[in-house]
Design goal:
Helices cover 81% and strands 0% of the residues. The protein is mainly α.
């Protein structure tokens, strides 16, 4: 596959994945469940990522006479993950700055409520310290970093697994 087609494949599937995640996030916002989704969101994201990789790898192999090396799979998967992460970052910035500027305050209130529920014996000093740490880790800048790092990390892991399953090396010519 020529480089331009490979890049276009990454771009198409990365944007598709990023848009699906964005639509899912908008739905969670619309039904006011963005804080409670937890494991369901993680499972959905995992399934989506695997599905996107399978489709992308099939298209890659179709364009390459049925062949794809593990290296090509990893490169393609990471490209898709980076682009999906960038789309997610753009959405997150728009969401927190314009759609729901009170998001961080509501997130902190939700997390404080969860802390009290899970540890009712927590002193006020412990609570203040925990809330202070939560504020630092909930900032938009930190969220952007986490989105990009997790996109790359999980993209690498899933690309390795799905790529190892779907790879088909070209036979060596002597």
């Amino acid at each position: 596959m020529e480089k331009q087609k490979s890049t276009q494949l990454m771009l198409n599937f990365g944007i598709l994945q990023g848009l699906i995640i964005t639509v899912y996030s908008v739905i969670l916002y619309a039904i006011d469940k963005q804080f409670e989704a937890g494991y369901i969101s993680l499972f959905f994201s995992l399934l989506l990522s695997v599905g996107i990789l399978v489709l992308a790898y099939k298209q890659f192999k179709n364009a390459n006479e049925g062949f794809m090396s593990l290296g090509e799979a990893i490169k393609t998967g990471l490209g898709i993950s980076v682009i999906a992460g960038v789309v997610s970052v753009i959405y997150q910035v728009i969401y927190q700055k314009f759609i729901d500027p009170g998001y961080l305050d509501r997130l902190l209130a939700f997390q404080k409520e969860q802390m009290i529920e899970s540890n009712p014996d927590m002193t006020q000093e412990q609570m203040d310290m925990a809330i202070g740490m939560t504020e630092k880790f909930s900032s938009l800048g930190f969220s952007i970093a986490i989105i990009l790092i997790s996109s790359l990390f999980f993209g690498l892991i899933l690309s390795l697994i799905v790529g190892a399953i779907m790879k088909k090396e070209r036979p060596a010519h002597f």
